[in-house]
Amino acid sequence: MTNSVVTGGELPGRALPDMSDRQFQRWVSLLEARTGMNMPRARRSFLVTNVALRMREVGFDDYDAYYEYLTSGLNGRLEWTHLVDRLTVHETRFFRDERALRLLTSGILPELVRRPGWDGDINVWSVGCSSGEEAYTLAMVVDAFARSTDSSLRFGITGTDISLRALATARAAVYSARAIQRIPDDMRVEYCEPAGPGRARIKRALRRRVAFALMNILDVNTAAPRRMDVIYCQNLLIYFAQARRLKIVDGLARHLRPGGVLILGAGEMLHWRSPDVVRVANDHDVLAYRRLAE
Ligand SMILES: C[S@@+](CC[C@H](N)C(=O)[O-])C[C@H]1O[C@@H](n2cnc3c(N)ncnc32)[C@H](O)[C@@H]1O
């Protein structure tokens, strides 16, 4: 076994080593402690395959030795950023939840700009933004709203994620022609440009409204308040146990300005109550909460 050389590839035909139950539990606990993600038994082969492939890439043949490497020293911290890319699910798409977006355009944004004393800024946070499709979708929706209302609205979108690789894709803002087909025609013309065969890039005018940053959502309760108008958190909480979801949603609510709205994925948060928010009534069955005035 070596641990100093990154070989960058798996040798074809080499069977992956077995992982014992004890080892599996150890990896599950590490993942839960560091990312909040639950790894049920049904996803055992996903975890084993991805840990094994990555461990081979960095020259280990033994799960325990790789675990020790990963949990000690600076190299371990760097290696963790690679492994976490493998163990997180990055599935996403443009305009993924049409009902939530409709509520944003027809209900939430108009109310936000009518708030007494509103300063003209709208700040939106895409939490667990993956490769950026959600953040750019929100930018398109807010920009189109600003144009349609002719308001002097200024806006910024922040996308955060735990995966450096996903964030690099988000910053590059280049997507397949197939991926951008999900963007409504008029917006695709307005906000996308060709970027080589079968590829399109989000235009600079929109890109400059969107910033991406590394953030582990487990740190939400200790992070400095962000004073957001909209927090959009979809398809992330599903990977967490209920107790963790409650803590995270409490933490997210702290980052809202008074009148700001937290939008969650359908069915992702049950039985959440907070004295600081009210549920936003809507016909779209969208789970959204407005922060009360301080
Ligand atoms: C399934 S994607 C959802 C992407 C997007 N929100 C959507 O709905 O299309 C989940 C994202 O959450 C990120 N993630 C998982 N655990 C995280 C954590 N502890 N902190 C921040 N992001 C995390 C993953 O890296 C992944 O990009």
Describe the 3D structure:
The protein is of the alpha/beta class. The chain has two domains: 21-87, Chemotaxis Receptor Methyltransferase Cher, domain 1; 98-291, 3-Layer(aba) Sandwich (Rossmann fold), CATH 3.40.50. The protein is built from eleven helices and ten strands. Helix 11 (242-254) links the parallel strand 7 and strand 8. Helix 2 (44-57) crosses helix 4 and helix 5 (98-114) packs across helix 6. The longest helix has 17 residues, at 98-114. It starts with 20 loop residues before the first helix and ends with a strand. Mean pLDDT is 93; it is low at 1-11. The chain binds S-adenosylmethionine (SAM). The site of S-adenosylmethionine has 23 residues, from loops.
Dominant shape = globular
What fraction strand?
A: 15-25%
**In terms of per-residue confidence, which ranges show pLDDT below 50 for 5 or more consecutive residues?**
1-11
- Give the cofactors and ligands: S-adenosylmethionine
Q: How are the strands ordered across the major sheet? A: 6-2-1-7-8-10-9
One letter per element, helices H and strands E, the order comes to HHHHHEHEHEHHEEHEEHEEE
